[in-house]
Amino acid sequence: MKAFSQQLKWQFILLGKNNIISISFGVTVIYGIILFLLRDIQVLDKVMVALVLTDPSVIGYFFIALAIYTEMKHGILPAIFVSSLSLHQLLLSKTVALSIIGTVCALGLAISVRGFDFDMLNFTIGVFGICTLSTLLGLIMLTYSNEFLKFTMLSVPFFLVFMSVPMLIYLGVINIGFVKYLFPIQGSLDLIDHSISGTKISFVYAYLSILIFVPVFYALAYRIFNRKVVHQ
């Protein structure tokens, strides 16, 4: 646990040096301004949930790739691979660090609009779940390209299906019935919606969804990253 805590600290330092933390907060400020300008509209809660869903997803998915590619470029990863640090510690610390940043940003958005008048516990769990799943999906997809631009071009369709389809369902643009519950982030989205709007949800489904999909995504990310990056 001590080794993991130290690695987590270094991940925050690396994210800071690579300007990923400042970029994350910058994106959140932009979303905050949008919410402030739309504060008087009747559907503010839906707009807020949509932006809260987008913010941690973008931070997790794209910034994990940016961080990894930066470390590849500067020769940091090869040095780590021959050190005593385990791959589990490396991937988990990166995932947790970005998920914490994404969660803090989303909490900032919610508090700026609602104050503390929302279910902060379930909101935090929902956002952390989305950011974790997005980060792990990013880890999987980055192994199929060797630079950030190629990663973006290759993986945007996957990201849109992963994030945009549940959001369009939530906004009422499309309706696919119970199939929506097969999407990995649906449980987290339900928790966020309940936290902000008080929508009745199945907490059993929401929490089981997170508890099932997060380990599955991590197992896939670990296996593919180990095969295609560490042992390439």
Helix content class: over 70%
Main beta sheet, described? none
Sum up the overall morphology in one term. globular
Order of helices and strands: HHHHHHHHH
Radius of gyration from the alpha-carbon trace, in angstroms:
18 Å
- The average pLDDT is 88
Low-confidence stretches: none
Structural class category: mainly alpha
**Beta-strand percent range:** under 5%
Question: In whole angstroms, how far apart are the ends?
Answer: 29 Å
Based on DSSP secondary structure assignment, what is the total number of beta strands?
0
Note down, in words, how this protein is organized.
The protein is an all-alpha fold and about 230 residues long. The protein has one domain (about 1-230). About 80% of the residues lie in helices and about 0% in strands. It has nine helices and no strands.
Write the layout of secondary structure elements.
Elements: H1 2-17, H2 20-37, H3 44-73, H4 76-81, H5 87-114, H6 120-142, H7 148-170, H8 186-197, H9 203-230
Helix pairs in contact: 1-5, 2-3, 2-5, 3-5, 3-6, 3-7, 3-8, 5-6, 6-7, 6-8, 6-9, 8-9
